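pinging the channel bc i need a second pair of eyes. not urgent but kinda urgent?? the chain im working w is below, pasted from the shared doc
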Amino acid sequence: MKFVVRTLVISAAAAIAISTAYAQSAAIAKRKDILKGFGDATKPVAAMLKGEAAYDGAAVQKALATYAAGAKELKGLFPDDSKTGGDTAALPAIWADKAKFEGIFDKLAADSTAAAAAIKDEASLKANFGKVLGNCKACHDDFRAKKS
């Protein structure tokens, strides 16, 4: 009987450890996927801003919608158990100043929504898109490990 109880306890502990590791890696994988989507959405707009591509309102609106939706989802993808692993570039500052960190996502969502309403042509793109990208810079500067 002791063997059975011990086996059940060990199995339960292993299951908890596996599910915790999975939850951690799932959060990291999901946030990396969203952030990669941000980068992919930004590329055509960056080309427009540099004068390397013609203004494409649909691509601009798609990028802004990607940011707004992703920003809302990202807030829940930095639980305390996802500080390490999964080749994350997240800095400990995220958890030390969670309010400031999550505030950037709130601002990104709001600025993206406002820009979507304001941007109608190349001139309004240039006047409004920098504010949106400023949120990305703020997060990268304070909460993302620098690439080596």
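so The CA atoms of residues 43 and 63 lie 9 Å apart. and Confidence is low (pLDDT under 50) at residues 11-23. — does that match what u expected or am i reading it wrong
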